[in-house]
TrEMBL record:
InterPro entries: ClpP/crotonase-like_dom_sf, Enoyl-CoA_hyd/isom_CS, Enoyl-CoA_hydra/iso, Enoyl-CoA_hydra_C
Organism: Emergencia timonensis
Keywords: Lyase
GO molecular function: 3-hydroxyacyl-CoA dehydratase activity
EC main group: lyase
Record-stated family: Belongs to the enoyl-CoA hydratase/isomerase family.
Protein name per UniProt: short-chain-enoyl-CoA hydratase
Quaternary structure (record): Homotetramer.
Pathway: Lipid metabolism; butanoate metabolism
One annotated GO biological process: fatty acid beta-oxidation
Catalytic reaction annotation: a short-chain (3S)-3-hydroxyacyl-CoA = a short-chain (2E)-enoyl-CoA + H2O
PANTHER family registered for this protein in UniProt: ENOYL-COA HYDRATASE, MITOCHONDRIAL, ENOYL-COA HYDRATASE-RELATED
Length: 257
């Protein structure tokens, strides 16, 4: 990959957006690399959890404004469709994805963090949806995911004012799940990734799917969906192993089967 770094170590996939000179702004090339990397991650059984972060002082400072300034409405639409494809893939991939937000998470950067399952922010991180100041609105799913995460009122406040908020404020409103000292951010993300990776992979994938898909359904349909996804996990070999290990007072050995 030219615009991201991707490596796997001890079952954890590390995706680092690597355009530090442009504060990791997402242009079409970065989006294409991200899509390819998550396609690879989806197919790789050795990857149990993923951490997404940014090289240098930013997580991602948004979609690339220099590139967008050259696009007409139809071309801009194409770029946003690509952004949605990437975010939807990250959200749907059957593995836990953790955003380790090391710095600016603005516009498309905040949207990338929101497409991940869990967000851990450095105390130095800053969040905003600054699009209205550029004459546009969030276009990688921000109007939808932000409202779902922090509620309609706070989403409107952030999107309409374009105000930049601190990690502490992001934590207060439920936009991030944890805040860590800058030097401890990656350790904290790895700790969470390893905790999740130690559980039954089918159960983790099933829980992710039940929460994500159920969130968009009415309660009755969501309950039915939970029963179906629960049954899939209940039929797994890892259910037999997990329960046997508990009863035999030993650690389980999950096989992702
Ligand atoms: N697109 C393209 N280039 C960007 C960029 C972006 N989103 N953000 C930063 N850069 C570039 C700057 O142009 C600058 O390049 P040069 O060195 O060639 O001049 C370089 O990165 C460093 O940035 P600054 O000099 O501005 O750094 P700073 O520390 O003074 O400011 C900042 C940091 C406050 C994050 C500022 O860069 C900024 O406001 N960036 C834009 C943030 C933004 O508006 N993002 C939303 C984009 S729209 C969007 O994302 C739409 C969508 O929903 C998909």
């Amino acid at each position: 990959y030219e615009n991201i770094k991707y490596e796997v170590s001890e079952g954890i996939g590390y995706v680092t957006i690597n355009r530090p000179k442009a504060l990791n702004a997402l242009n079409m090339d970065v989006l294409t690399d991200l899509y390819a990397a998550f396609t690879e991650i989806e197919a790789d059984e050795t990857v149990k959890a993923v951490i997404v972060t940014g090289e240098g002082k930013a997580f991602v400072a948004g979609a690339d404004i220099a590139q967008m300034s050259q696009l007409n409405a139809l071309e801009g639409r194409e770029m946003m469709i690509m952004g949605h494809k990437v975010m939807n893939l990250i959200e749907a991939v059957e593995k836990p994805v953790i955003a380790a937000v090391n710095g600016f998470a603005l516009g498309g950067g905040c949207e990338l963090a929101m497409a991940c399952d869990i967000r851990i922010a450095s105390e130095k991180a800053k969040f905003a949806q600054p699009e209205v100041g550029l004459g546009i609105i969030p276009g990688f799913g921000g109007t939808q995911r932000l409202a779902r995460l922090v509620g309609k009122g706070m989403a409107k406040y952030m999107i309409m004012t374009a105000e930049m908020i601190s990690a502490a404020e992001a934590y207060r409103i439920g936009l991030v799940e944890k805040v860590a000292a800058p030097e401890e951010l990656m350790d904290e993300a790895v700790k969470v990734a390893k905790t999740i990776a130690s559980k039954a992979p089918i159960a983790i994938a099933t829980a992710k799917s039940a929460i994500n898909n159920g969130f968009d359904m009415d309660m009755k349909s969501a309950s039915k969906f939970e029963i179906e996804t629960f049954t899939a996990a209940f039929g797994s070999e890892d259910k037999t192993e997990g329960m046997a290990a508990f009863l035999e007072k030993r650690a389980p050995e999950f096989k992702n089967k």
